[in-house]
Amino acid sequence: MKRRTRRNKIAIIRSILSSATNEIQKTALMYAVNLNHKTISYYLNELIKRGLISETANKGFQTTEKGKLLAKRIEEYEKHLEEAEKLRKAYLKFSITRVRGILKQ
Q1: pLDDT (tens digit, 9 = 90+) per residue, 49-58?
Q2: Does residue 4 carry a pLDDT above 90?
Q3: pLDDT digits (tens, 9 = 90+) for 9-64
Q4: Is 54 in a helix, a strand, or coil?
Q5: pLDDT one-digit tens code per residue, 58-95
Q6: Helix (H) or strand (E) holding 36
Q7: Which positions ≥6 away from 41 have C-beta within 8 Å?
Q8: CB neighbours (10 Å) of residue 40?
Q9: Residue 37 backbone phi and psi in degrees, to 5
Q10: I need a surface site. Which of 2, 5, 30, 81 has the fewest CB within 10 A?
C-alpha cells in the first residue's frame, strides 16, 4: 500500500482556490479539500486578507481573479516540479547503472 504523504501549504492553498472557483459553503469546502474546521478557517482568513478569496453575501466563499491567477501559477509550478523529479530519478538510475558497470570491470 502506498504511503500517503502530507500536503504542503502550497498544495492546500491550490486545493482551496481550485475548489472555490464557484461559490461554495465552508462545510462543502472543508470536505472538498479534506481539512478540519480549524485548519480551513485559518487558510480562509489568510486568503481573504490577501485578496485571493472573497466571502459572498450567502456566507459562502469564492476565488477572486487574483486567486484564480495564483492557482494557475501554482499548477504550472507543480508540473515543473514533477518534471524535475522525473529527470532526477532518471539521472539517478543512469548513475547507479554506470557505477555498477564500473564496479564489474
Answers
A1: 999 999 999 9
A2: no
A3: 999 999 999 999 999 999 999 999 999 999 999 999 999 999 999 999 999 999 99
A4: strand
A5: 999 999 999 999 999 999 999 999 999 988 888 888 77
A6: none
A7: 26
A8: 21
A9: -60, -45
A10: 2
Structural element, H or E, at residue 61 = strand 60-63
Query: 59, 23, 57, 63: which is closest to 43 by C-alpha?
Result: 63
| CA 34 – CA 31 distance, rounded (Å) | 5
Long-range interactions of 34-42: CB distance < 8 A, separation 24+: 40/16
3 state DSSP class of 53: strand
Counting runs of H as helices and runs of E as strands, what totals does the chain give? 4, 3
- Is this prediction's pTM over 0.70? yes
Q: Are 20 and 27 in contact (CB under 8 A)?
A: no
Q: Which strand (E) or helix (H) includes residue 105? A: none
Distance CA 90, CA 75 (A): 23
